[in-house]
Amino acid sequence: MMKHMILIFVLTLSLSASAATEKQKKMIKFIDAIAGVYDSMYAPALWKKEFANWTLAANVQTAKEQVLTEELTNSNFHKIINELILSMKDYHVSAKFYATEKATLPFTIRGTDGRYFFVYIDRSKLPVAEFPFQLGDELVMLDEMSVDEIVQEIKAGFGENTDETDQALAEMYVTSRKADKAIDVPSGPVQLTIKTRAGVTKKHQLIWDYTPEQILRKNLSKKLNNVLAQKNTFDLQMTTQLAEDLMSDVNADNRFGIGARQSYLPELGTKIWSSDKENHFDAYIYMNDAKELVGYIRIPKYGAGEKESKLFKEIIKKFQKTTDKLVIDQLNNPGGSVFYLYSLVSMLADKAMFTPKHYMAINQKMISEHITNLEQLEKVTNLEQLKKVMGGDTVSGYPISMTFLSFMKAYYQFTINEWNAGKTLTTPYHLYGVDMINPHPEVNYTKPILLLVNELDFSGGDFFPAIMQDNKRATIMGVRTAGAGGYVLGVEIPNQFGVGTFRYTGSLADRVDNTPIENLGVKPDIAYPLTVKDFQTNFKPFKDAINNQVKKLK
């Protein structure tokens, strides 16, 4: 019976397609082109079937059916493509839409238990004299809708991925709406209903900072041929377009922003020493009430390189000499470079640290590049030659060595062998063959570590705590990370519908216990979700909980 139903559906779709307009036919061809990329190169496909009963074919059929139901604008088509992408429940998978329409309000809210509080107010736009509300005051309504209704409406459009992360993202989008995310954009005046910490309810009107759509031409393609343009880099990236976009939209003084230099955490104690404000890292030393010297360092993102790795080294060197324990804050971390992340890990232990293994999607283009790279590396006989080939002493801060050469050669040979064996998805293997992160030759922190994580830690922000937890090198505290578990690649298919680069996950990483990071994230050893009292008292309960946990570290 099911077989007959599928045949009827396909026949109906085929008959509908024959009567479709030229624009609808082109839209369907474009969906097929996207499907072709994911069918051949989306590494987590089998895991998604197991985790969420997801199949590419079923969701592609749904998208085509939506296209054929009516004559669509490009904006409507963006939403169909976005729904197809969201069906994968994968924060790496995204599409960039060419659209300029957007609207923002000059504040940020976050919440808990259906209540939402101001955590940032842009005082350059809303001075106290004009907007007499404070951080910790509660935003109750926008016009006639409760904030919780708005949040849940936005959240419903995220495809039911990691619940805590979807919730936090929806809260951020309440005051930042962009058509290039296939989100409806408001305009005009908006009435805020606000409940102060003193319990007084007031109303205040603002106007959305609105930018209308300016891209009105139908043909947005820069190329005439239908060829995939894929960006390839040596240092594989572990970040998400979603997090990158949120990071770019946030003011530098917004401590709740993704990738912000300074965290929303208050100072954990009276500072004895602190890094310069110009330093990439916000770091300091304080004494707790147990008379222990505790180091604190904020890792805002893993999208950095050799310069930042050297700054980290100098701080960790100081901490090793003077502190008893260390707090690492990577709250709201968008991820970044694999090797930069490895370089930081190397300074946090005096033993080699296991890395995750990856199932990797491979194709002819990739294998051709690997053959060329392997031939080049086979000619290298000493370290100076290797540094010349690699273009420096490090890869994003991770030191180049003859051992690294052996790792890379083994990695390239492995992928070639897998392809020659007829595989398009490899068996699990370490990225670039780096199965262990060796201790840094100069600096190693050997004292206890508390690592703070939350639901807005993506990709590299998943991998760093996974490595630290799997190697029993740190106690993890906070909220489960987002669960973006692999490296990401980007593709652009020329089209006339305003769809730009879209991303796909090229690998699926397994932890030491063979469970994937994808969708599951890293579960903290010590759970701490933010509370109403946190939002209303500058996170003092969180601060106290951190300091209590620091004292327990052994």
Overview of the molecule:
With 554 residues, this protein is an alpha+beta fold. Among the domains are: 102-211, Roll (Pdz3 Domain); 362-424, no CATH class. Helices cover 36% and strands 21% of the residues. The protein contains 16 helices and 28 strands. The strands form nine sheets. The chain has a seven-stranded mixed beta sheet, sandwiched between helices. Helix 2 (22-41) packs antiparallel against helix 4 and helix 11 (364-378) runs antiparallel to helix 13 (402-420). The longest helix is centred in the first third of the chain and has 20 residues, at 22-41. It is flat. The chain starts with a helix and ends with a helix. The model is unreliable at 1-12 and 217-233 (pLDDT under 50).
Brief sketch in words of this structure:
With 554 residues, the protein is α+β, with helices and mostly antiparallel strands. 36% of the residues lie in helices and 21% in strands. The chain is flat and about 70 Å long.
| Total number of helices | 16
In CATH, the architecture of the domain at 102-211 is Roll
Unreliable runs: 1-12, 217-233
What structural class do helix, strand and pairing data support? alpha+beta
Mean pLDDT: 92
Topology:
Blueprint: H1 2-18, H2 22-41, H3 45-52, H4 56-69, H5 74-86, E1 94-97, E2 102-104, E3 107-112, E4 115-121, E5 138-142, E6 145-146, H6 147-155, H7 163-173, E7 176-178, E8 189-195, E9 201-207, E10 209-211, E11 229-231, E12 237-239, H8 241-249, E13 271-274, E14 283-287, E15 293-298, H9 306-322, E16 325-329, E17 335-337, H10 338-346, E18 353-354, E19 357-360, H11 364-378, H12 383-390, E20 394-395, E21 398-399, H13 402-420, E22 436-437, E23 449-453, H14 460-470, E24 475-478, E25 488-492, E26 499-505, E27 507-510, E28 526-527, H15 532-536, H16 540-552
Parallel strand pairs: 15-16, 16-23, 23-24, 24-28
Antiparallel strand pairs: 1-26, 2-7, 2-10, 3-4, 5-6, 5-8, 8-9, 11-25, 12-17, 13-14, 14-15, 18-22, 19-27, 20-21, 25-26
